[in-house]
Structure prediction request, 266 residues.
Amino acid sequence: MREASPPDFDGRAQQGGGETRTHFGYSEVPLGDKQGLVDDVFHKVAHRYDVMNDLMSGGLHRLWKDVFVAKVHPSKSRPFKHLDVAGGTGDIAFRVTRAGGRQTKCVVLDINPDMLAVGRERAEKKGLSDRLTFVEANAEDLPFPEGEFDAYTVAFGIRNVPRIEKALAEAYRVLKRGGRFLCLEFSQVEAPFLAKIYESYSFSVIPLMGRIVTGEAEPYRYLVESIRQFPPAEEFAAMIEQAGFQRVGFTRLTGGVVVIHSGWKL
Ligand SMILES: C[S@@+](CC[C@H](N)C(=O)[O-])C[C@H]1O[C@@H](n2cnc3c(N)ncnc32)[C@H](O)[C@@H]1O
Prediction:
């Protein structure tokens, strides 16, 4: 692993010295190594993931997720098949399931069994297990046929995926015609004053919080750095278009701290 300066990455894997390399936070790593490193992070944080989300965002992530899921519009009366990729401990899938009718079924897909185990346990407690399926798989290679789902969501997950273009192509493939792609992801804060506060909060307070609550600061440093490496909203929207989606657009929330991206398979 070698250190890389923050601004030189555009969200795509880079070719250099005969080996394709990418970023893991601010470090530069062989493309093939990134997923294993990401998996270690989520293995370490899984048992405290939900508590830390509340602490780090001051509860704001719940509001962002509510606004995000309000765009899904699952049918109240007809069958609706939803796929939540990088679904982790189930926050998005629980909201979609509750918003839809009895025939709304959700698949929570994640590469990390530890995150899924927490999700399964939570679903059981909430009495939602019969409408949810938990699948351990990679966003880059979805184990579903073409045209299977009415909607696809990915929340705070896409920046962790090594080959983002592959994940977007898979999202397009598994959606039905008329299906919607929605992505919730951290982004760059626009207002300079807010950006300064956000920067020092992210790099000083979050890793410290991680150390106090979980005993580990490193996974939280990666989470913060990976946000800085993710392409700006305009660039990511162009990647969504390149994957074939139409009527692509995005909405910034909380001064640009997070962005909701949307596209349709028409
Ligand atoms: C920050 S968590 C987001 C969890 C959940 N969506 C939420 O909003 O609370 C990121 C998730 O992405 C998952 N992930 C990372 N790489 C992945 C991949 N290639 N395919 C599927 N999931 C992946 C991680 O295991 C982790 O559960």
